[in-house]
């Protein structure tokens, strides 16, 4: 019985951890670089980030992921696609929406790149600490 309880507790813990580094991206609510910077912060804290979107926001998720990858900050770990049943408010009938989830992990040189970017910002702001 103890093994079962321990297994259930582990499932709950991993489920909670999974949600802490997940970003539900919208293509209308926030600007693109809000999500890029939030993803960087989540990778600093959790070593990986999951970007998720429905419908028209899928392009935004792909763009965020590509910006992070092209800057050498992230590597793709997993891409999941599916459809979600939703209700069309105007017509009241069920509609399927496309869904994407992209799991990104830190690159080996993520910390160095972030430190260099922070140092560069300090110099631009006139706060060089030598």
TrEMBL record:
Coiled coil: none
InterPro entries cross-referenced by the UniProt entry: Alba-like_dom_sf, DNA/RNA-bd_Alba-like, UCP030333_Alba
Domain DNA/RNA-binding protein Alba-like, chain residue ranges per copy: 21-82
SUPFAM superfamilies: AlbA-like
Gene3D superfamilies per UniProt: Alba-like domain
PANTHER family given in the database record: ALBA DNA_RNA-BINDING PROTEIN (PTHR31947:SF43), DNA/RNA-BINDING PROTEIN ALBA 3 (PTHR31947)
Protein's name according to its UniProt entry: DNA/RNA-binding protein Alba-like domain-containing protein
Species of the source: Hevea brasiliensis
């Amino acid at each position: 019985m103890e093994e079962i309880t321990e297994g259930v507790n582990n499932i709950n813990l991993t489920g909670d951890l999974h949600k802490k580094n997940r970003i539900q991206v919208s293509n209308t609510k926030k600007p693109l670089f809000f999500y890029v910077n939030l993803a960087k912060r989540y990778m600093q804290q959790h070593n990986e980030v999951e970007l998720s979107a429905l419908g028209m926001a899928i392009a935004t998720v792909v763009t965020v992921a590509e910006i992070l990858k092209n800057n050498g900050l992230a590597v793709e770990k997993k891409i999941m696609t599916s459809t979600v049943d939703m209700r069309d408010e105007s017509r009241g009938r069920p509609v399927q929406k496309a869904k994407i989830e992209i799991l990104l992990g830190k690159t080996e040189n993520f910390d160095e790149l972030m430190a260099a970017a922070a140092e560069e910002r300090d110099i631009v702001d006139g706060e060089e600490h030598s």
